[in-house]
Specification:
258 residues; two-stranded antiparallel ribbon; globular
Length: 258
């Protein structure tokens, strides 16, 4: 599920109720708002009754004023789009200045950012402990894989921990797939079904010839492990449970679920 995370602010920014799988009406809305987001690049307002930019307000909290911090969960199309949509709606309909922040690399980066941590993307030191946060909202948040990190934040920093405000209105899934063109090539050549796990048995088949070799990868496009989900205990526990590969992981005490 995609979630909406928020922080209590003064005044309160917004609320959102739990959603349901996207309906055709919701999808039409997102198509319209995509066009609107493109229009906004030219500084034109999206909504006909938009609050003018000159009238936008800052948040005022504990004697300081600053814009609403909208943390972009990740640098991919869905996150970039929905973050821009939320920015437009808060500015043009609620009248607050919104500063886009990030993007993060993982959902847990957003959790730490909203908690006031000054270096939320640094798995070695998130920089937590501040009594003020400049990041207040995050959308396109995949909470299911990072519940341990969220629980740790809630225990260690209960006054600063973000609040899960529920489903944003649509669902998403992540996983692996083999492109249909690759499947067809293998089947046409020797009847190999690359959508069937037993045809990956290298004692009988050589399915690897239908895929790129590791040496063909452009290493400049790869991230260090510390910037990926390989630093997430839940992910690596699953890997260990499935493979039993004790040589492939490092076991250590982790306070921040990093």
């Amino acid at each position: 599920k995609h979630q909406f995370l928020g922080r209590d602010t003064t005044p309160k920014v917004c609320t959102v109720a739990s959603g349901h799988p996207a309906s055709p009406r919701v999808m039409c809305f997102f198509v319209a708002i995509l066009l609107c987001a493109n229009l906004a690049k030219s500084k034109a307002a999206c909504f006909p009754d938009a609050i003018p930019e000159s009238a936008l307000k800052d948040l005022v909290n504990l004697g300081a004023s600053y814009p609403i911090g909208l943390w972009n969960t990740g640098n991919y199309s869905a996150s970039n789009l929905i973050s821009r949509v939320v920015q437009i709606m808060i500015q043009e309909k609620l009248g607050y200045k919104v500063l886009l922040q990030g993007p993060g690399g993982l959902t847990q980066d957003a959790m730490f950012a909203l908690s006031g941590c000054t270096t939320p993307k640094d798995a070695n030191d998130r920089g937590c402990g501040s009594a003020r946060t400049y990041s207040h909202v995050a959308v396109e948040v995949w909470t299911a894989g990072y519940l341990k990190a969220l629980k740790w934040i809630q225990e260690q920093y209960p006054q600063m921990a973000p609040t899960n405000l529920g489903n944003i209105g649509y669902h998403g899934e992540s996983g692996l797939f083999v492109p249909s063109a690759v499947q067809s090539r293998a089947y046409d050549a020797e009847g190999v079904h690359l959508d069937f796990y037993r045809d990956y048995n290298v004692s009988w088949r050589t399915p690897g010839k239908y895929f790129s070799n590791p040496g063909d990868l452009d290493v400049s496009t790869l991230l260090p492990c510390i910037n990926t989900s390989l630093m997430t205990p839940e992910t690596m526990k699953t890997y260990l449970d499935v493979t039993g590969d004790l040589e492939g992981i490092e076991s250590r005490e982790s306070s921040a679920g990093a």
